[in-house]
Amino acid sequence: MNKFCHIEIPAPDLDKAVKFYTEVFGWEVEVMDRYAFFQDGLVGGGFDPDMKVCEGGPNLVIECEDIPTKMAEIIAAGGKQTKPKTEIGGNMGFYASFLDPNGNRLSIWSKE
To answer: What CATH number is associated with residue 46?
Structure first.
């Protein structure tokens, strides 16, 4: 066991977070008062407007099929690319990093 069961992402602007993650990644989001629960298909979590965004914290990595296509969607939805598609090596695929509209640092990963 000992796997992720819930992830919380700081969302000082809750509306921006809900719009961004539903639009770009297709996550199901349910807003309840001042908190929004999301489900990505495997792991659930929440957008917490009371959490502060900080630099250097954990990096969440979201799997996608095509990094350039997904990064274009991220940028169109108000995100900002911070690292272009980069090979990991050892046949482990590729990743790229971005900031969401609230300033959280995340990455996307793809085998190709």
So the answer is: 3.10.180.10
